[in-house]
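User: structure tokens for this one?
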Amino acid sequence: MEVLCKHGGRLLSNFATKKGVARKIVDIDDVIKRFDTYLMIERGLSKNTVEAYNDDVQKLVAYLDDAGLSPADATEGDLHGFLSGLFDLGIAAKSQARILSGIKTFYKFLKIEGYIDNNPTMLIESPRLGRKLPTVLTIEEIDAMIAAIDLDEPEGQRNRAIIETLYGCGLRVSELIGLRMSQVYVDEEYIIVEGKGSKQRLVPISGVALEEIQKYIGGYRSQLKVKRGCGDILFLNRRGGMLTRVMIFYIIKKLCLLAGITKNVSPHTLRHSFATHLLEGGANLRAIQQMLGHEDISTTEIYVHIDRSRLRQEILSHHPRNVRDNE
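Assistant:
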């Protein structure tokens, strides 16, 4: 007879097994109950998660029982058959992955308790979850947004410079609002962007964007009463302070409305459009990843790991703004 006890927060059995000799599952319902206890006590999972895992295991047990198998006897092939059945039933990949997670946890428990010597789920991969494709604007739609900007309004030139910089450099909105004038190198035509984790990267900037920025600096920005601490910030609000994410979002939404664009657009949409248009134009994928900041490049590593002239040439050759200027 098996006696269970708690020891150090771990559910243990006083039933010793010989090395290499697995225990036999006599009562599967009892094993599942102890699995539930293991999940609550040792894993500290919530009641809802435990119930979900229990349901996953019950599905598997029913499937194996029809084949005259115990969970301890199931092979990797048997489990693949079970998963294939889920697919045939039309269960979504995300749900399949969640069920597989419960099954894998159950087999880890069986191995801990000595019911199996080898875990048949070790090499089973979760189904690939499809990623929703991001919204991308066409070049014509971006042109329409820019054309919708009223340059007679005080912030008109600033907004034009913002859109050209977002789209021309593929910046995150946080990178845009934090961009400093000292990080804009007009003669060299590149900017230094501070991305996630305070990592900095070098990004070429188009002549079109630089022209709009210079017009903004020489006009609207020069007339502002700049708040303390914002003297080097490039894009400012009408009170001389930093812009917010919400304000950039509002600017883009308003321009889309004026341009008749019905897509669900956000500041990040311009970043997606930047990358997509470069890729469609034949730009090197590695260069695009670097310009988007998907590599951790610190200030001192910039000149070691990035070929500035090569990255600049990628934008000059493939970004629609530059291609158009050269025609």
